[in-house]
Amino acid sequence: MMSFRQIFLASLAVVLAACQTQQTQQAQVHRAESVQQVQPAQQVQQAQQVQQVQTEQQEPTVLPPIEAQDEPEKVERQKVRRNRKTKVNRKKQVRESQESAAPVKRSYAPRKPGRRVSRVNVPGKYVAVTFDDGPSPVYTPQVLDILKRHGARATFFVVGRSAAKHKSLLARAVAEGHEIANHTYTHIKMTASSRKTVASEIERTTAAIKAATGYEPTVMRPPYGAVNSGLVDMMYNDYGFYTVLWDVDTRDWQKPGVSKVVSRAVGQAEPGSIILLHDIHASTLAAVEQIVVGLQQRGYKLVTVSQLIAMGRRASGEGGPATPEDATPAEIPVGLAPIDVVSSEPTAAAEISGQPAEQPAMTTSETN
Fold it and tell me: How many domains does the chain have?
């Protein structure tokens, strides 16, 4: 038979077990309720995500057209081009205004012509108009017509291969009182060529000129104006040539327009000037008559380079004929017709000097 103590302990154990069971059941109920509360929120969020994906698939993103995307870049490129063009135009306007406003810079002329000549010191208003790179069967005859019409003389620095093809043009030029000069056979850059090549170019051109006219030239011009003291001495010592450059560069080979070519030739000329032109461009041909008339209206007489040099020798105090008309073939190359003196200023002419003289730096041309 159980004692009271044993009965009490057994009852207490039963009560404790019942309480633990109740707590366990309550905890399970609480967890179940929590799960039930969380699941609807997650389900709603998941449903919204699914719906959003489906919407994106059904309605693809509409991108702006390619033109619209490129429009800002295109506008920026156009702006850069406009700014660049504006800067170029401003520089051009400044340069042109400076050329028109600034006084003409006088070129240097030595007291006596030397082996290299760019301008000659003469007492009268005489200039030499020169043409490079011909003869041209199209333009040279028209240049000769203009010169003949106005009683002007010029010097043609011919390329040998062209001279060999158009002998009749050279013969006509000499017959009408013009001078034919050496400009190499194939327009080489002499400073970049061997002495052997230079000699061949000069000799072949001289032969072509003599075959066409019966006379040998006495002056030459290096293509591009590229020359050094060694070549100047070579031309004089080996061939008796005087190297002729220029002091008035019209830059007609750039085709700047007839008015600019005329303005440069007439506006920059001074007594003893040597003017550079090319008888191979239509734009130059269009300017020739205006140049000749413009110079003559300013009192200038157009003579050949050799005549200009001869007058410079006489002006320096050396002996010789008093005027170009009195010069014999020894002083003026054979084949050059005498010129009419229109200036009342004292003039003189003599043989070409062989003495070297200091020369100014020259502006070279791309095609002369």
Answer: 1
Classify residue 309: in a domain, yes or no.
yes
**Which candidate in 132, 133, 249, 279 is catalytic?**
132
Name the phi and psi angles at 69, rounded to 5.
-65, -40
247 is catalytic: no
Catalytic site residue from 178, 183, 278, 281 = 278
183 found inside a domain: yes
Q: Is residue 124 part of a domain?
A: yes
List the pLDDT tens digit at each of the 368 positions of the chain.
567 777 777 777 777 777 777 777 777 766 766 655 545 556 657 767 766 656 655 555 555 555 555 677 777 788 888 888 777 777 766 666 555 544 455 555 676 778 999 999 998 999 999 999 999 999 999 999 999 999 999 999 999 999 999 999 999 999 999 999 999 999 999 999 999 999 999 999 999 999 999 999 999 999 999 999 999 999 999 999 999 999 999 999 999 999 999 999 999 999 999 999 999 999 999 999 999 999 999 999 999 999 999 999 888 876 554 444 433 333 444 344 443 333 323 233 333 333 333 333 333 344 56
CA 32 to chain centre: 93
Q: Are 128 and 273 in contact (CB under 8 A)?
A: yes
Question: What's the pTM?
Answer: 0.64
